[in-house]
C-alpha cells in the first residue's frame, strides 16, 4: 500500500519518462556516432542489440524508485554501479540454477557443487550493499531534517524510513533490505523480458507494428515523446501488451501454492501440504479459451484493449497476486511506446525472429533480440533535441 499504490506510482511518472527519453536518446546518438555525422544517415538502417537498452531503462527506473539513484548505462559505470550489477547478476544466476542437492538431500550436508557457499557469500555482499544505501538515506534524512519530508522526492527507502520512525519494530532495517531486494528481483527482469518479447512479436508482424505506430501518431503526434498520461488513449498498444503477456508470460509457472487442507480441485483429491504449480503459459494457450490460441492476434482484446484480459494469469492471482502489476504495465507501455514512436524497426534478413524461450524461473528469450532501426522522419527534430 505504501510502496506500490496508484499515488506512489504516479509520483515517479516523471522519472520513468526521463529514463525512456534517455533510452531513445542513446539509441539515436549511437547511430549518429556510427555514421560519423554523415548527413544522409537518417535514412539508413543500423543494427541495435535491444536487450541492454531495455535492461538499462527498467533497472534505472526501478533503482530510482527504490533508492533514488540510477546505476546502469549512459556512461554511468562507477565502482558502486559495477558492484551492484555484479551482485544482481549473481543472485539471478543462483535463483535460476537448480542443484543436485535439491533432489538428493543427503548431499546437502556436504554442499555438493558449493551452491550454498555461493549463496551465503552473495547474501553477505548484498546485505552490506543495501545496508550502506539505507544508512546513506538515513544520514541525509537526519541532516536535512523536516525539509527532506517532501513526499514527491521520496524513494521507497525514504518512505519506509519514515514509517520506521513511527513503528521501528515493524519496519526494521532487515525489512527494508528485504523489500528492496523483492522489488528489484521481481520487478526488473519480468518487465525487461516482456518488452523484448513484444518487440520480437511486432518485428514478426510488421502490419501490427504499423498499426501500433499509427495509434501513437494519431494520439500523441510528432512534437513530443509519448508519456504515461497517453496510456489510457493507446488501446491498441495495450492489446499488443496483453497479447504478449498471453503468449509469453514473464513468469510462466506462477509461484507455488501449498494446500492448507485436504481439498478437491477439478475432481482431483488433493492432500493437505501438496505443492500446486500453475502453468500460466499453458493455460494462456488453451484452445478452448482462445481462438487460434498460438497466433499473435492483439485484436482479440477488442476495442478497449482489455476484453477477455481477466482470463490472463501473468500476474498470478488471489491474495499473493503480483503487487507490481500496475507499475509493470506502465513501464512496459512507456518503453514499448517510446521505441515504436521514435524509430522504424526491421528484422535483420528475411528470417522471422526466433521465439525460442530460455528455461528458467522467468521466461526470457533464448537469443537476445537484434534488429535494424532508423529514426522516424517526423520525429527527427525531437530526437535531435533530446
Ligand atoms: C511484467 C512484469 C511483471 C510480471 C509478469 C510479474 C509477475 C508476477 C507473478 C506471476 C507473481 C506471482 C503471483 C502469484 O503467485 O500469484 C509476482 C509476484 C510478485 N511481484 Fe511481480 N511481476 C511483474 C512486475 C513486478 C514489479 C514491477 C514489481 C514491483 C516493483 C513486482 C513485485 C512482485 C512481488 C513483490 C511479488 C511477490 C508477491 C507475494 O508473494 O506476495 N512485480 N509477479
Automatic annotation (TrEMBL):
<keyword id="KW-0560">Oxidoreductase</keyword>
<keyword id="KW-0479">Metal-binding</keyword>
<dbReference type="GO" id="GO:0004497">
    <property type="term" value="F:monooxygenase activity"/>
</dbReference>
<dbReference type="InterPro" id="IPR002401">
    <property type="entry name" value="Cyt_P450_E_grp-I"/>
</dbReference>
<dbReference type="GO" id="GO:0005506">
    <property type="term" value="F:iron ion binding"/>
</dbReference>
<feature type="binding site" description="axial binding residue">
    <location>
        <position position="322"/>
    </location>
    <ligand>
        <name>heme</name>
    </ligand>
</feature>
<dbReference type="InterPro" id="IPR017972">
    <property type="entry name" value="Cyt_P450_CS"/>
</dbReference>
<dbReference type="InterPro" id="IPR001128">
    <property type="entry name" value="Cyt_P450"/>
</dbReference>
<dbReference type="InterPro" id="IPR036396">
    <property type="entry name" value="Cyt_P450_sf"/>
</dbReference>
<keyword id="KW-0503">Monooxygenase</keyword>
<keyword id="KW-0408">Iron</keyword>
<dbReference type="Pfam" id="PF00067">
    <property type="entry name" value="p450"/>
</dbReference>
<dbReference type="GO" id="GO:0016705">
    <property type="term" value="F:oxidoreductase activity, acting on paired donors, with incorporation or reduction of molecular oxygen"/>
</dbReference>
<protein>
    <recommendedName>
        <fullName>Cytochrome P450</fullName>
    </recommendedName>
</protein>
<dbReference type="GO" id="GO:0020037">
    <property type="term" value="F:heme binding"/>
</dbReference>
<keyword id="KW-0349">Heme</keyword>
<dbReference type="InterPro" id="IPR050651">
    <property type="entry name" value="Plant_Cytochrome_P450_Monoox"/>
</dbReference>
<comment type="similarity">
    <text>Belongs to the cytochrome P450 family.</text>
</comment>
Amino acid at each position: 500500500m505504501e510502496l506500490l499504490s496508484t499515488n506512489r506510482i504516479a509520483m515517479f511518472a516523471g522519472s520513468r519518462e526521463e529514463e525512456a527519453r534517455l533510452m531513445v536518446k542513446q539509441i539515436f546518438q549511437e547511430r549518429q556516432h556510427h555514421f560519423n555525422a554523415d548527413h544522409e544517415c537518417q535514412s539508413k538502417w543500423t543494427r541495435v542489440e535491444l536487450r541492454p537498452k531495455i535492461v538499462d531503462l527498467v533497472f534505472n527506473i526501478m533503482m530510482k524508485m527504490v533508492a533514488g539513484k540510477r546505476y546502469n548505462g549512459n556512461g554511468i559505470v562507477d565502482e558502486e554501479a559495477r558492484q551492484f550489477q555484479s551482485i544482481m547478476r549473481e543472485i539471478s544466476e543462483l535463483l535460476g540454477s537448480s542443484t543436485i542437492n535439491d533432489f538428493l538431500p543427503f548431499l546437502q550436508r556436504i554442499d555438493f557443487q558449493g551452491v550454498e557457499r555461493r549463496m551465503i557469500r552473495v547474501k553477505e555482499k548484498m546485505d552490506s550493499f543495501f545496508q550502506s544505501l539505507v544508512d546513506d538515506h538515513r544520514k541525509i534524512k537526519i541532516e536535512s531534517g523536516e525539509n527532506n519530508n517532501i513526499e514527491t522526492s521520496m524513494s521507497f527507502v525514504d518512505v519506509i524510513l519514515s514509517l520506521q520512525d513511527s513503528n521501528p519494530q515493524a519496519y526494521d532495517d532487515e525489512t527494508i533490505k528485504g523489500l528492496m531486494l523483492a522489488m528489484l528481483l521481481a520487478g526488473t527482469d519480468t518487465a525487461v523480458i516482456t518488452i523484448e518479447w513484444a518487440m520480437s512479436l511486432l518485428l514478426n508482424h510488421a502490419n501490427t507494428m504499423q498499426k501500433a505506430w499509427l495509434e501513437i501518431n494519431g494520439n500523441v503526434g510528432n512534437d513530443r515523446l509519448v508519456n504515461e498520461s497517453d496510456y489510457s488513449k493507446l488501446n491498441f498498444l495495450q492489446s499488443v501488451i496483453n497479447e504478449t503477456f498471453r503468449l509469453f508470460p514473464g513468469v510462466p509457472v506462477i509461484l507455488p501454492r501449498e494446500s492448507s487442507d485436504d481439498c478437491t480441485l477439478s475432481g482431483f483429491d488433493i492432500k493437505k501440504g501438496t505443492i500446486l504449480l500453475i502453468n500460466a503459459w499453458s493455460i494462456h494457450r488453451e484452445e478452448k479459451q482462445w481462438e487460434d490460441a498460438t497466433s499473435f492476434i492483439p485484436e482479440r482484446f477488442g476495442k478497449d484493449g482489455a476484453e477477455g484480459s481477466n482470463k490472463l494469469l501473468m500476474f498470478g492471482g488471489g491474495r499473493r497476486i503480483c503487487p507490481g502489476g500496475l507499475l509493470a504495465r506502465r513501464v512496459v507501455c512507456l518503453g514499448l511506446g517510446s521505441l515504436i514512436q521514435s524509430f522504424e524497426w526491421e528484422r535483420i534478413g528475411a528470417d522471422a525472429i526466433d521465439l525460442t524461450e530460455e528455461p528458467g524461473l522467468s521466461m526470457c528469450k533464448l537469443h537476445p533480440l537484434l534488429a535494424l532501426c532508423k529514426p522516424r522522419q517526423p520525429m527527427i527534430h525531437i530526437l535531435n533535441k533530446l
